[in-house]
Amino acid sequence: MVWLRDGEVILFQGDSITHGGRSLDTDPNHVMGHGYQCVASGRLCAENLDKRITTYNRGISGNRIADLYGRWAEDTLALKPTILSILIGVNDAFFSWRSGTGSDPARFGKIYRLLLDEARAAGPETVFVLMEPFTGPCFADADAREFMSRRVAELAAVTRRVAADCGAVFVPLQKMLDRAAGVAGPERILWDGIHPTVIGHELIARRWMAVVGRELAKIRG
């Protein structure tokens, strides 16, 4: 993978989908948790054994974009990532449905831009990777299912615009997961409408590797 450099620091940031049950200590067996970020991290490091690649997972379950901003200095800027990957948004939709405490699309975009502005100021050469928030149909409540589908799509559109405006790599996921659900069944991809199964995580990792690899090769020549 010529698009990775010696000394690369790759940070996966987000909510429970990225958290993946990670340990909060330095145990290398559990520090990345399970899921797409662990799969991608293992492959990136294994295929670049001659390079000093460092990967971090700082996803926290339940986080909305405002929660991410609250810990941005400690959990992002202090780590000095050269590649910063973010997956956020589904909790902003879910909390909006459940208690009205998620960010609407306008506020979501405003905070997202603030996050990236601060990260750019701290690391002008940092490559941003914005992952598309996604959802599935496995909600018992039909109204919740309809709301989540609509609101997550709105937040995904905001994420895409922010990526374009900030020169970030955008990783599309919803259509890919929808296609997989159409073949295998939705419960085998996003079992509760939010969290991926092992199949879902594998598909996300593959898409991340493909898109980021292609775009970084362009960026870095």
Instruction: Order the strands across the largest sheet as they lie in space.
Output: 2-1-3-4-5
Into how many domains do the coordinates divide? 1
The CATH homologous superfamily is termed SGNH hydrolase
Distance between the termini: 13 Å
Query: Which fold name is given in CATH as the topology?
Result: Rossmann fold
Rg of Cα set: 17 Å
Q: In this structure, how is the largest beta sheet organized?
A: 5 strands, parallel
Please identify the structural class as seen in this structure.
alpha/beta
* Rounded average pLDDT: 97
**Binned strand content:** 5-15%
Q: Shape, please? A: globular
* SSE run: EHHEHHEHHEHEHH
Give the C-level CATH assignment.
Alpha Beta
Instruction: Report low-confidence residues grouped into runs of 5 or more.
Output: none
Can you give a write-up of this model?
The structure is a single chain. The chain has 221 residues and is α/β, with parallel strands linked by helices. It has one domain (9-220): SGNH hydrolase (Rossmann fold, 3-Layer(aba) Sandwich), CATH 3.40.50.1110. Helices cover 50% and strands 10% of the residues. The chain has 9 helices and 5 strands. It has helices at 16-19, 36-46, 65-70, 72-75, 90-98, 105-122, 142-166, 174-184, 198-220; strands at residues 9-14, 54-57, 83-87, 127-131, 169-171. Strands 2-1-3-4-5 form a 5-stranded parallel beta sheet, with helices on both faces. Helix 2 packs across helix 9, helix 5 (90-98) packs antiparallel against helix 7 and helix 6 packs parallel to helix 7. It starts with 8 loop residues before the first strand and ends with a helix. The model has no long low-confidence stretch (mean pLDDT 97).
